[in-house]
Design brief:
15 strands, alpha/beta, Enolase-like, domain 1
């Protein structure tokens, strides 16, 4: 089948944080049409700027392209990456390319009447163990979660040791000794803070500290690994492509890799990143892995059995872009066997 049209749109988001990068450059929708009448949808990043990259450049490169196999999608990825390289390689261009790639996987799977996880390699897990990101740990416990990533505390932008210890204690108390708990620093700690936090939180048996510092501080994170062990250092949501993760590998910075499939290059590049990780015995836990694209990826590959969810996204009044998204049941989340990613676009958001 040949691609006859492709268009990227920035949804009508109403619940984005103010004065942060997400308020201008959040997720985009990519729609790909084929001459067979099949349509595929993808999810990328970059806001209106990401849409411009697709609609003004990648579109003209894609029209008329034959998409009949996974190999064809891989060829498209390599071509788009190469031809956008002078202004791309990282950042917005790869976030946009991620949306295109996911749309092509959805298109091919729908055309073949298969779920995406079948195209990737077949379902090796019936479901993924879900973890809840957020502070409402009692709510998550009642929903059946056995894993939680709680936020560290800050006061006027500075790390709050007392508040972070209280958050860890609350999570461990609510979920019990057998639960998996971790925290996401979102580039808000330094070496001194991390060292002290590891000592302070040692009694709570945290699995990982996530995004300690910026992605450019690889050597600093590598030096911290033996200092805070057995707590792991996780990260990678702001790293992209196998080339970026090769630098992470060479530096020894991270114990756990967390590529985001809507930013790192889509499923095509996600598989390459995963191959690099697994060949070096590094666990992979995709960022936002409980979303449809991440979920299909997790259940059909050697990713660790953990899928990140944000339960507040499902609350009434939240922006609902995708209809029929899987929800957590008894602590686990399952992709559907419907064609493609198994979700439908909420046209009212476009």
């Amino acid at each position: 089948m040949k691609i006859t049209d492709i268009k990227a749109v920035y949804p009508k988001w109403t619940k984005l944080p103010e004065s942060k990068w997400q308020s201008r450059f959040w997720q985009i929708v990519v729609r790909v049409e084929a001459d067979t009448g099949d349509v595929g949808y993808g999810y990328g990043g970059g806001g209106e700027a990401g849409c411009l990259v697709i609609n003004r450049h990648m579109r003209e490169l894609l029209l008329g392209t034959e998409i009949n196999s996974v190999n064809a999608i891989q060829h498209v990825w390599d071509r788009l990456y190469h031809l956008s390289l002078p202004y791309g390689r990282k950042g917005l261009a790869v976030m946009a390319l991620s949306g295109v790639d996911l749309a092509l996987w959805d298109l091919l799977a729908r055309a073949q009447g298969l779920p995406v996880h079948r195209l990737i390699g077949g379902r090796s897990k019936d479901a993924a163990r879900a973890y809840a990101t957020g502070a409402n740990v009692e709510k998550y416990r009642d929903m059946g979660f056995s894993a939680n990533k709680f936020p560290p505390a800050f006061i006027n932008g500075s790390p709050d040791y007392v508040g972070t210890e209280a958050n860890a204690r609350r999570a461990r108390t609510a979920l019990g000794d057998k639960a998996t708990i971790m925290t996401d620093c979102y580039m808000g700690w330094d070496v001194q803070t991390t060292t002290r936090m590891a000592q302070l939180l040692s009694e709570f048996n945290l699995y990982w500290f996530e995004d300690l510092v910026t992605p450019d501080h690889l050597l600093e994170q590598a030096a911290l690994k033996p200092v805070i062990a057995p707590i792991k250092i996780a990260g990678g949501e702001h790293e992209v492509t196998r080339f970026g993760f090769k630098s992470v590998l060479d530096s020894g910075a991270l114990d756990i890799w967390q590529p985001d499939l809507t930013w790192c290059g889509g499923i095509t590049e996600g598989l390459r990143i995963l191959d690099l990780a697994l060949s070096n015995n590094i666990p992979v836990v995709p960022h936002r892995g409980g979303e449809p694209w991440g979920l299909h990826f997790i259940v059909s590959t050697g990713c660790e059995d953990l899928a990140e969810t944000m339960p507040e996204r499902w609350d009434i009044g939240s922006d609902v872009l995708w209809v029929n998204e899987p929800h957590v049941i008894d602590g686990y989340i399952r992709p559907t066997d419907e064609p493609g990613f198994g979700v439908r676009l909420n046209e009212a958001m476009i």
